[in-house]
TrEMBL record:
The keyword Amino-acid biosynthesis does not apply. Keywords: Cell membrane, Membrane, Transmembrane, Transmembrane helix. This is DUF3817 domain-containing protein. It is a multi-pass membrane protein. The chain crosses the membrane at residues 12-30, 42-62, 74-93. Coiled coil: none annotated. Pfam families: DUF3817. Residues 6-89 form the DUF3817 domain. It comes from Paenibacillus illinoisensis. Its main location: membrane.
C-alpha cells in the first residue's frame, strides 16, 4: 500500500478520517462531560494537521495524476462527513486498485 503515491494518500485518508471521528465522538463527549477538557485541543490539533496534509497531498495528486476536478472536490466535501473517507476509499479507490490489478 505504501509503495505508491496513491497508497500513501489512502493511508493519509484513513488517518484523517480516524482523527475526525475521534474528535467528534471521543474528544467532544470527554470535554462536555468534564472528564478531560483539553481533549478537544489535542485532538483538534491532530485533526487540523492531518487535514492540511490531506489537502496538500490531494492537490499534489490532482496535478500529477491528472485527476478530473470533481474528484478533489468530492474528497474535500467527503472529508467533513464522519466516516465519509472510509466509504469513499472502499467504493472508489479499492475499485481503482482492482481495475489496475486486472490490467496487469
Amino acid at each position: 500500500m505504501l509503495h505508491s503515491t496513491l497508497g500513501r494518500f489512502r493511508l493519509l485518508l484513513w488517518l484523517q478520517g480516524l482523527s475526525y471521528v475521534l474528535l467528534l465522538f471521543v474528544a467532544f463527549p470527554l470535554k462536555n462531560a468534564g472528564i478531560f477538557p483539553q481533549s478537544v485541543t489535542w485532538f483538534g490539533n491532530l485533526y487540523g494537521f492531518l487535514f492540511l496534509m490531506y489537502m496538500l497531498f490531494m492537490v499534489s495528486l490532482y496535478t500529477t495524476q491528472k485527476w478530473r476536478l470533481r474528484r478533489p472536490i468530492a474528497l474535500f466535501f467527503i472529508s467533513f462527513i464522519p466516516l465519509g473517507n472510509f466509504v469513499y476509499d472502499f467504493f472508489v479507490f479499492r475499485k481503482m486498485d482492482q481495475s489496475q490489478g486486472a490490467a496487469k
